[in-house]
Specification:
Helix content: 10-25%
Number of strands: 14
Structural class: alpha+beta
Order of helices and strands: EHEEEEHEHEEEEHEEEHE
Number of domains: 2
CATH class of the largest domain: Alpha Beta
Length: 261
């Protein structure tokens, strides 16, 4: 009898069946890989000091370098501008931001690198408030292609998000932490020599297939496999009823240590 091959029905990659007036995505957007955010040791210690010692919320801004080869970011310096704070909110005015930008420019520090805003939530969770969301919207409306927001608390929790205006997406809860330490060539050479000298693979002695099922005592990684049982003579013998042919063949092809009883 001839069989007709089943072909599943096609499913469109988009949905345009709405009866409401709306604009939706046509094809699935290929989002870029989420970046990682790092801090220099001095920046990280400064952040923890601000969060751990100040009893109210406090905010700061930071200079950021971007690594074009990886897409990751490094916060190299932070500044605490003039602000009004309370137990649940920090407000940095547009005038304070402008003042800070002018101070940076006077020190030949490009103010366009000021694309990181961090603040403390004291003892609360790191979920952003409505004010936090509005503040980010203000930063993005000022023409920032990228912007980073970090929220931290005294418990050590953090939420760091990267806003990418070019790709029209936000990467939430990205990996963040201290800048990775690069090993110098001399230390790498020393570690390689130690690995070569001291890290060895075990020498495995295979039991000839002709000796399987005899009175030799197999030991695999110091554990006797379930497919062997101890007979009345104190020897481990293969149990023919243990597995089907496929499992038995896999065992026959497995090298293992053995020793005579």
């Amino acid at each position: 009898m001839n069989r007709i091959k089943y072909t599943p029905p096609r499913v469109a990659s988009f949905n345009s069946a709405s009866l409401d007036s709306e604009t939706t995505q046509l094809f699935e957007w290929d989002f870029p890989k989420a970046p990682e955010v790092y801090y220099t040791p001095l920046v990280w210690e400064s952040i923890r000091y601000l969060v751990d010692t100040i009893p109210s919320e406090v905010g700061w801004l930071g200079i950021v370098d971007k690594f074009e080869d990886t897409g990751n970011y490094l916060v190299t310096d932070i500044y605490v501008p003039e602000q009004t704070v309370s137990g649940v909110e920090t407000d940095i005015s547009a005038e304070a931001l402008t003042k800070l930008a002018l101070e940076l420019e006077s020190q030949n520090i490009p103010s366009e690198k000021l694309i990181y805003w961090g603040h403390s939530h004291v003892n609360m969770g790191v979920t952003p408030s409505m004010q936090d969301e509005l503040q980010i919207e203000d930063f993005l409306e000022n023409g920032c292609e990228f912007f980073i927001r970090g929220i931290y608390n005294k418990r050590g929790d953090s939420k760091v998000d990267v806003y990418d205006s070019q790709q029209n997406c936000v990467h939430q809860c990205v990996r963040n932490g201290l800048q990775p330490t690069e090993l110098d060539d001399l230390l790498k050479t020393r570690l390689d020599s130690l690995i070569k000298a001291n890290v060895k693979k075990p020498v495995v002695k295979a039991l000839p297939k002709s000796r399987l099922g005899t009175t030799h005592k197999p030991v695999i990684a110091n554990n006797v496999p379930d497919s062997y049982y101890l007979n009345g003579y104190g020897n481990y013998v293969y149990d023919d009823d243990y597995a089907d042919d496929l499992e038995r063949q896999e065992l026959l092809d497995t090298p293992f240590y053995y020793k005579d009883h």
